[in-house]
Amino acid sequence: MVKIITRKSLGTQNVYDIGVSCDHNFVIKDGLIASNCFNKSHSTAYAYVTYQTAYLKANYKLEYMAALLTANSGDTDKVQKYIASCTSLDIEIDPPDINASQVDFTPLAKNILFGFSAVRNVGQNAIACILEARNEGGSFKSLADFCDRVDLRAVNRRALESLIYCGAFDKIESNRHQLIKDLELVYDWAQSRARDRASGQGNLFDFNTGISHNTNNNQVSKAFETAPKANPVPDLPQPEKLRKEKELLGFYVSDHPLKSIQQTARYLAPINLTQFAEQKEGIMVCALVMLNGVKKVMTKKGNEPMAILQIEDLTAQSEAVAFPKSYERISSLLQVDSRLIIWGKIERKDEKPQFIVEDAEQVETVQLVMLELSSQQTADIQELNRVRTILKEHSGDREKAKVPVIGIIQALNSRQAVLLGRQFWVQDSITAFQALNNAGFPTEVKQLTGT
């Protein structure tokens, strides 16, 4: 590399971006070559950007993650990955809030708040209308107050339903089903009032409550108190609320169907979907997933059914394949929105990892045999052989042995969980539990969903 010791301005010149197919080497003077100057300048720039982003993430993590989510809001996989990163940083992602959300993801206290632009069916005009009404009149007090103050030509019924179902009105009224029922009446009521105002007419009920239609005197209208309401109804079941949330936001936000069993499930599935690419090809792995989609296809020969599965966990969304033999065995379990424990192997196709499903169980039916062992017992070959013999007696046919056995090793003040290999899983949890206890090994049976 030749060191440049002088520079001379040539004034304003046309500049061209030259694409070079091989090395980035350029003639400087007298046949001397500047080698790889393009690469090195880029390396410096990338290093500097890496330093800047690392600094921001370390010192302004809320603002940094909010900006990252906003910049990638159109990429579902990336947003889910960054939401998982937020969880690891102890940052919660809150669903949209009609009285606090802005256009994009924004920091709020110690959390990050979903922006209106991330809600499906809510367009830019609707967002601008909502923010303008909120800035002029303050926080919305109810659904009726909201409908009365925004322009319903911009914020249509479909947009309102989306805002309700994704939780944007939860801090005003947590019963989303009630809000949907009220909307059927309130929407028409608000439209009627808008037409009256446009024609300069008053409303009998407004006059009775002494309410002014003058919007320039900063008086807050309370006409919404006279708005019609539907008969009381129970709220939607939690699974239905979460399904609607995901449909409109692309993710589970207020909760996730897998969260309640995450701690216990880690014994069975210590890795998540984002870590699949790191696993060695051909090694059996296990994952706790939600099943988002099932596409039944036929093999190339056209005579055997198989399935392509869309799955997700708390960290990512991915694709899995169930070939004919596995599909025949587990097809009855493949219901969309079901929670599954799936076992399989990683194969690489076109340099990309692919999860090949070999077996599956519904989370609701999964039981665990929890075997307590002291550190002294784990160091005693005879004790371990006794455990091995009992488990072998109760495993039988490997295809039928679907109850995992977890060894809980007590050492001083720590407890370590170890998932025993498939050859030690048992067919019947109760008989294995009784045999282990009778042999002096403290054991209990746990339901995965009940822990």
From TrEMBL:
Highest taxon listed in the record's lineage: Bacteria
Sections of the chain in a coiled coil: none
PANTHER family associated with the record: DNA POLYMERASE III SUBUNIT ALPHA
Record-annotated OB domain positions: 297-361
Name of one Pfam family that matches: tRNA_anti-codon
Location of the DNA polymerase helix-hairpin-helix motif domain: 91-179
Alphabetical list of Gene3D superfamilies matching this protein: 1.10.150.870, Hedgehog/Intein (Hint) domain
Name listed for the protein in its UniProt record: Trans-splicing intein-formed DNA polymerase III subunit alpha C-terminal partner DnaE-C
Organism of this sequence: Plectonema radiosum NIES-515
